[in-house]
Task: structure prediction
Amino acid sequence: MAREVLNIGQIRIHSGSATREEAMKEAADLLESAGAVTSAYFDAMQQREQTVSTYMGNELAIPHGTNETKDAILDSALSFVRYDGGVDWGGEPVSFVVGIAGKGEEHLDILSQIALLFSEEDDVARLKAAQTPDELYALLASVNQ
Result:
């Protein structure tokens, strides 16, 4: 990819919990602040979630928009939020909410990078143990390659 899809400003750690809607809103707001999506993207995420859950396993959810709402995506980017108190994602426990916006077909490359990061339990444990956004960014930097 030509530029970084994740930077330190798009990473948050919360000690508490959130509802699924609050978590999706924060993910969308971070993407919007990064200039990657319009304000319509949160609605697109909600539409996707009504169709199919974006829960991926290993305490990970990847909310994203629908194919019909691609016009809300201005550029490719990620947001990464860890909720140490957890999020009830339609009955599944989630600690990591990764908002994704992919311009064109870039979302497939980005998704594969995230999937690799969450495929190993040791990597997930490291992501849970990170104390600061800087530490998380160091663990997540591979998504920019």
